[in-house]
Amino acid sequence: MNWAIATFYKFVTLSEPAALRRELLELCQSWGLRGTILLASEGLNATVAGDRPSIDALLNWLRSHPEIGPFPHQESTTADAPFERMKVKLKREIVTLGHPEVNPAQQKVGTYVEPRDWNQLIADPEVMVIDARNNFEVELGTFKGAVNPQTHSFRELPNYVDTHLDPAQHKKVAMFCTGGIRCEKATAYLLDQGFEQVYHLQGGILNYLKTIPTADSLWQGDCFVFDERVAVDHRLQPSEYELCLGCGHPVSATEKASSHYEAGISCPHCYAALTPVKRARLEARLRDR
């Protein structure tokens, strides 16, 4: 089976997310889908895999829902199942910024920039380009010249903005992330803090990689994705990375050759923090698998 993978989100007010969760889970299971859908009163955020008819059935059902309506989605394919099962979860936020007052469904967000216009924008020396993803994601790949805020979670980004950016100094700010959802909130936050010219990449990195030919691309490296593929290359095909089960960091083939790599236990990113207690816990988890 060739798995189709659909990634999508929408900030929209959902009146009864708990009821929607029950209905969605039942439908997704009946269609044989796998993946994760997050629901909150502010909207939905999902990456789901299945065969072509099942993916189409889910997208059509959601787009015909009276509270949801049309939304774009990004798509790729893989030969191996990218998820083990289907999960539909209730959350306070569909992407956690830690500022619930920031709601893109109810306030202005940054100016969308199509992939075909992105290269010209970020080549402007007056534009500060910020990678809105976490540090371990940036390490795998990013746009040429982009700033890495070195955050470990998305909720740390507001602190970076407050301490490193100034509306009076940084007149133009462009942001990007994997699929675009984090930038919806991040750019809304910047506008709320007084920044005036704020831009973000429409559809995120995945849309850029799908749209822009490799020869014209300013993307460097691979893109981390939140499924069993771990990371994809410019052709949106799985790259060489695996996840370290000890710390969750992507591990390259070169890092797996390190003496600090032990399958299911540690990698060069977490070896120094491996205590006897943690090792025992991880070894027990391996035995139970």
TrEMBL record:
InterPro entries: Rhodanese-like_dom, Rhodanese-like_dom_sf, TrhO, TRHO_N. It is an enzyme of class 1 (oxidoreductase). Pfam families: Rhodanese, UPF0176_N. Transmembrane segments: none annotated. Its EC number is 1.14.-.-. Gene3D superfamilies: 3.30.70.100, Rhodanese-like domain. One of its GO terms (biological process) is tRNA modification. It comes from the Bacteria. Residues 123-217 form the Rhodanese domain. The keyword Iron does not apply. SMART domains: RHOD. One of its GO terms (molecular function) is oxidoreductase activity, acting on paired donors, with incorporation or reduction of molecular oxygen. Keywords: Oxidoreductase, tRNA processing. It catalyses: uridine(34) in tRNA + AH2 + O2 = 5-hydroxyuridine(34) in tRNA + A + H2O. PANTHER family: RHODANESE-LIKE DOMAIN-CONTAINING PROTEIN 7-RELATED, THIOSULFATE SULFURTRANSFERASE/RHODANESE-LIKE DOMAIN-CONTAINING PROTEIN 2. Catalyzes oxygen-dependent 5-hydroxyuridine (ho5U) modification at position 34 in tRNAs. Belongs to the TrhO family. This is tRNA uridine(34) hydroxylase. It comes from Phormidium tenue NIES-30. The gene is trhO.
